[in-house]
Amino acid sequence: MRRVLALVVWLPPRQRQVFAYCLDGFAPREISEVLGLEEAAVRSHIRHSRERLRTLLTGSPPVIKDRSQI
Q1: Distance between CA atoms of residues 65 and 7, nearest Å
Q2: CA distances from residue 1 to 4, 7, 20, 40 in whole angstroms, order as listed
Q3: Which residues of 44-67 are buried (b: 16+ CB within 10 A; e: fewer)?
Q4: pTM of the prediction?
Q5: Which one of 9, 10, 51, 52 is most buried, by most CB atoms within 10 A?
Q6: Quick one: fold of 2-60?
Q7: Distance (Å, rounded) from C-alpha 48 to C-alpha 68?
Q8: Pick from 36, 33, 4: which is nearest to 20 by CA?
Q9: Cβ distance 21 to 45 under 8 Å?
């Protein structure tokens, strides 16, 4: 967990903000209410944060499911 927290600084500001709420135990609905974002946007920020952190932790490139992202 300490490694994850150390890597959170490498997330973009909004992802970092949303992920911090997530780590504090807030549900996506609660985060969306606090930050004034759509719940889907919050879930997206959480997903992207996890993907980025996983990449930073493992050194592995993210899995691309859609070839249009290349």
Answers
A1: 24
A2: 5, 10, 13, 26
A3: ebbebbeebbeebeeeeeeeeeee
A4: 0.78
A5: 52
A6: Arc Repressor Mutant, subunit A (1.10.10)
A7: 17
A8: 4
A9: no
Structural domain spans, the chain: 2-60
Question: With 0-12 CB in 10 A as exposed, 13-18 as middle and 19+ as buried, what is 30?
Answer: middle
**Residue 67 structure tokens:** 């070839």
pLDDT in tens, the chain (70 residues): 788 777 888 899 999 999 999 999 999 999 999 999 999 999 999 999 999 998 888 876 655 566 554 4
| Token pair belonging to 33 | 């209410």
- The owner of tokens 């930050």 is 35
The single-letter code of the amino acid at 40 is A
